[in-house]
Amino acid sequence: MTLDDARARDRVDPLAFARDRFSIPEGLTYLDGNSLGALPRATAERVDTLVLDQWGKDLIAGWNDHGWIDLPKRVAARLAPIVGANADELLVADSTSVCLFKLLSAAVAARQGRSEILTVEGNFPSDRYVVRGLADMLGLNLRTVALADLAEAIGKNTAAVTLTHVDYRSGVRADMAAINAAARTAGALAVWDLSHSAGAVALGLHRDGCELAVGCGYKYLNGGPGAPAFLYVASHLQDALHPQPQGWLGHADPFAFADHYRPADGIARFITGTPSVIALAALDAGLAAFEGIAMADVEAKAQALVRFFLDAVGDALPLHGPTDLGERGSHVCLVHDEAYAIMQALIARGVVGDFRQPNLMRFGFTPLYTRYEDCWRAADALRQVLDKREYDEPRFRDLKAVT
Ligand SMILES: *Cc1c(COP(=O)(O)O)cnc(C)c1O
Question: Which EC number applies (predicted)?
Fold first, then answer.
């Protein structure tokens, strides 16, 4: 496995053209797009126009004249083909954690009399905190099982099931169709977290019988730091749910300023408050980077990049999670007791991944802009850091606030 092999792959990569849609610093090997997507070239101008020309010149008229009020809908329309859903089943708002709370609380309220929420071991901490807090607030029982046991564990007493589609550490991709089928049979509602799937794998929310889901805007969707998240509610379920908090923009007629709340029809009832227009414009530019690109090609390249990287690393370090790439998403974690210091040494060499507790180095492969060359460079740098024990240097051992 040589640099020439990697470059030969890049030359015949059908998605190679998409890298030009991003602004990536020269010489940087960026394998952290699963934590913060790279900056699309179109974003700065988009945000600039919105701030200087629209807000700056037209002020409040922008809500009508520049269609700010409909921006969540337009962004949802761009997201729809990326996740395999209809635009009117998606809402872009809030953070992933807040979206999860909104959907999960609405789901359990729609299953009154059932006393249990089910989740999966090792789920993303924020998701675990949210579901724990909700269960405590409502006096429900929270049961945590291994992913392999989840479908069987869903029973008559289960109000809702929540899990992450692609695990943030192991990269395991859950069987969405099977778990949704089991939930439906038992009369429970499944709420999926697509944070590590949306923009990385070929999701088919309809195909896989998905009813409720949330996901992150700043990872593979390239919306920028703290970009709004999204939520998905299948059409048939929308009017049966009564999301909280019931804010004014989810009202059927917000500008009637009515005394009593009356939910809007459809997905609009899931909006709580005023959309974050500047952030939505940035996310819109991030999603536009997927234009004309089939998610099947994105997923195929993700797997090929992961395979290339793992082959280039060889057996230097153990892989966390399944070796069958068909069961994975688009990132890998390698295991080493000095994972944090090794990652810091890699970052000093211009290879950026991240560290996840307790001993994992995580590398994310973002098919729109990751090259095979990046995979090779990362594996090469890793080999050198290990061979020279660069991670022993004290400067690589200070734990930063964001890892
Ligand atoms: C990144 C991530 C989140 C992010 O949550 P925010 O509330 O948007 O910060 C949530 N869930 C998972 C699984 C994630 O990977």
Answer: 3.7.1.3
Q: What average pLDDT does the chain have?
A: 97
d(C-alpha 10, C-alpha 241), whole Å? 47
Catalytic choice (22, 30, 101, 124):
124
Q: For residue 369, what pLDDT band results from cuts at 50, 70 and 90?
A: very high
CA angle 205–191–332, rounded 5-degree value: 75
Spacing, Cα 10 to ligand 1 middle (Å): 31
Q: Give me the catalytic one of 21, 46, 114, 219.
A: 219
Domain check: are 87 and 162 in the same one?
A: yes
Closest atom of ligand 1 relative to the 98 alpha carbon: 7
pTM summary value: 0.97
Count: domains in the chain: 2
- CB of 124 within 6 A of ligand 1: the answer is yes
Task: Specify whether 243 is located in the same domain as 367.
Answer: no
Range of the domain at 346: 3-30+294-396
Contact at 8 Å (CB) between 84 and 192? Answer: no
Last residue of a domain, one of 261, 289, 317: 289
Helix or strand holding residue 376 (H, E): helix 372-387
